[in-house]
Amino acid sequence: MKKFLFTLAFLISLNSIFAAVPTAQEIVFSINLKTEKVIAGIYSHFEQIEEIKSVLEDFDQIFLENAGINPRKDIRNLGALVISREKGFDFFGYLDGSFNPSRIVAEIEAAAKLLPPVARKKVEISNIGDRQVVIFSDEARGKKTAAFFYNNDLLIAGNLQSISQLIENKTAFSAVDAKSPELQKELLVKIDTMKARSILEKIQNPALIPVTGVLSMFNSLEMTIDRNDINVLFRCTDNSTTQNLKTFIEGQIAGYRMFVDSQLKTLQKPGKDPNWLPNAFKYLIGRSMALMTKKSLEQTKVAISGNDVVISASMPLLSQGFLNPATIGAAGIIAAITVPNFQQARGEALKKSCFANQRVLLGAVEMYNMDHEKMMEKLDSSAIELLVREKYLKSPPQCPAGGKYNSDGKLSADGEIKCTIHGGVE
């Protein structure tokens, strides 16, 4: 039971890094692990060894005796949600399965009494409305997180304030539907990038500008992994982004294939050498990884459906089983060759467009200064409006990345026009 208490504490302690302001639920990010497939995959590998099979059976028996749970059969899904709020965002973790709530709460209460006095104060069993709630206190941070059984099938953990609202307002928690086809995949990750971008912009941290730039390209992002199949879906904001992303990804895949082929040519079987042992391991690891990468790239396909870009990969020749290393490797490759590199290429294009705007602004200022005795010395929003009003500009230039234009030094001398994101013309 201590292991279950620890798992529960870990699940809800994740909430301490998130703010909680209870308003209408809007899911920004979700991740779901099909736990029953995970456990079945692990067991199927280890049950081939008779001694380990008996250990696994003992493990099941321990959980059955202490919590009335058979991990292999009774836990279906483990997941987390980030939910947008009017003034921030909140985090919920959940376990979906077949439980005996009253027995589990009683076991947690009994286990808490065995903890040292200092730790015991951090665990409390309390009633909110008609529900029993396990409350964990983080005195150092002044935060409390809680967990309760929404019903016999769903254990929800989160910030105490939000959990209290769920119970007292009898709010429907419909985000987790165990029968949904989506939740039959071994791993499901979904991001509503528009909502995520809105949250990050409210934080107003300059370090997050590149992240919001990536999110601005897509309406949503979804990835599923099931056995040896990987699918990544980008719902792009427009057809131009869709076409550019597909072309870019295909180019990156071709480039990676060439790189891997060159690596395979250099990673040849070593001959007799004083350093034969390290060279042998270098050959084993390097060539195996290169061959795995090559196979992943060969199985990767890119397609367009409307404004969506779909990337799919399959590893049918490799071992079956939950999230095998080859599948994870393929997912890593897909991630590496899409968003970061595409954002870099897109960032360069945005920078060039911004620099062109700066040159237009500088030309307008120079023409204005030639026509007026009182020269324009600095550039700000009011100065740009003046240039438009007096027909030196057709319309206010807009930085494509959302930056603002200003000036550094006197524009009648050697001053420069700069952007708050891209800086001055290089």
Question: Key features?
Answer:
15 strands; 426 residues; 46% helix; alpha+beta
Provide the fold topology.
Layout: H1 2-13, E1 26-33, H2 35-46, H3 50-67, H4 71-74, E2 75-84, E3 89-97, H5 101-113, H6 117-120, E4 123-128, E5 131-138, E6 143-151, E7 154-159, H7 160-168, E8 187-191, H8 193-203, H9 209-215, E9 218-226, E10 229-236, H10 239-266, H11 276-298, E11 301-305, E12 308-314, H12 325-337, H13 339-371, H14 381-389, E13 405-408, E14 416-419, E15 423-424
Antiparallel strand pairs: 1-2, 1-8, 2-3, 3-7, 4-5, 5-6, 6-7, 8-9, 9-10, 10-12, 11-12, 13-14, 14-15
Helix pairs in contact: 8-9, 10-11, 11-12
What does this protein look like?
The protein is of the alpha+beta class. It has three domains: 2-178, no CATH class; 220-337, no CATH class; 347-424, Pantoate--beta-alanine Ligase, Chain: A,domain 2, CATH 3.30.1300. It has helices spanning 2-13, 35-46, 50-67, 71-74, 101-113, 117-120, 160-168, 193-203, 209-215, 239-266, 276-298, 325-337, 339-371, 381-389; strands at residues 26-33, 75-84, 89-97, 123-128, 131-138, 143-151, 154-159, 187-191, 218-226, 229-236, 301-305, 308-314, 405-408, 416-419, 423-424. A twelve-stranded antiparallel beta sheet has the order 4-5-6-7-3-2-1-8-9-10-12-11, with helices on both faces. A three-stranded antiparallel beta sheet has the order 13-14-15, covered by helices on one side. It is extended. The termini are far apart.
